[in-house]
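Translate sequence into structure tokens.
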Amino acid sequence: MKEAISKIACISTKLGKASIALLEALTIPEVLRKEKLEALKSHLGVTEILYLATCNRVEFMVITPIASTDVASLRNRILDFFFDKTESTDQTEFEPDNFRLFLGREAVKHIFEVASSLDSLVIGEAQILGQVKEAHRYCQDNGLSGNALDRLLSTAYKAAKIVRTDTDLGKRPVSMASLVGMRTDEILIENQEAVIAIIGSGPMTPKMADIIRKEHKNKIYFVNRTVAKVAPFAEKYDGQAVELTDFIEGKFKADIIITSTSSPEPIITSAGLRNLMTDKNKIYAFDLAIPRDFEATLVDSDKLEIWNSEKLNILAQKNRRERFRLVDQTGRLLDEQVKQYIQKEITQMISPLFDSALDESMAMAQEGLSNLFKNKLSHLSSNDQELLVYWSKKVLARACYLPAKQLAAHIADSDFEQDLRLSHLPKNAR
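Result follows.
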């Protein structure tokens, strides 16, 4: 029973623990994702895997074939997979402290915290739940995850919903997009005629357009390699759809550039940036992509202010301090959800042990009732006899499975690191 929960493990890294360069190295391009994750699953020797990569985190959630107490070895195998020791050109630096390792109950709680946005740079942001669901669907569709992760994540979604409805965390939600919007508002106060370019066709594009259009009527370019993908955004938000090559060549000028693409390589290099600049304007860039859309060598100057996910973390810290009082309340709520999940899993696991007892009890009751109906209770109508049989079965079923529930509840409350001997159980559960 202890081993079943201890098969759940998670290896996590995020901004604040790791650099953007490390997140980029651990991010798998979409076109290679299925092949690479199948290979990683085989390399790790796990039965199920879920891979989550966002602009500020990478998570590997796995189910191991046997109970694992050495999550560090899983982390090391992941690093071996992503960083070929024979590849001399790889200069990405990392340390053990860049990763957080979770096993068993702690892994379950961590996954619940991620889905509930309690582990986010921006506490309470709503986007992460959608990202977890999308990652889950991808792994389901490609045969990478199975029943164990499905049950775990379904319960995590339920916990996230409870957090949003039962606490203040869901009120006035903040996201990375809204943080960009805050800085954009400040820029537009100083430069009311600024032109805005939003590059990419993913979920961040309409989020940013919504935020901007609530307060501003500035010209917006919707930029993408395939213009047809952003044409609906241009129509909805009163903007203009622009082909990426034309934009990079400087045919369209913008003062504020917001990027969030899935390109494995930078789309704006030093040369491309020069095409976008004029003698008068300063460019404010917001790079929300992992890997980065702006070349890593580009830094702040008198002509460029560049914000990436790492830098936006500074703004996020203000949000974190303001919402810190909610963390304890939400943490206690999640603790209860974790306990309920573990109790349900263990009940499901040990219930078959009580099936034979139920079958024997049912047979004995049926025989005893049949004799009574022929003799002392022969005066009962058939309906009364059926009702007595029905309630006898209900009572027996509850009596047989109640010990399973009590045992599961005790285990869910116990320290998994301790042996689960019957001598540790309360008298009423023995």
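Note: The first strand starts at residue 8 and ends at 14.
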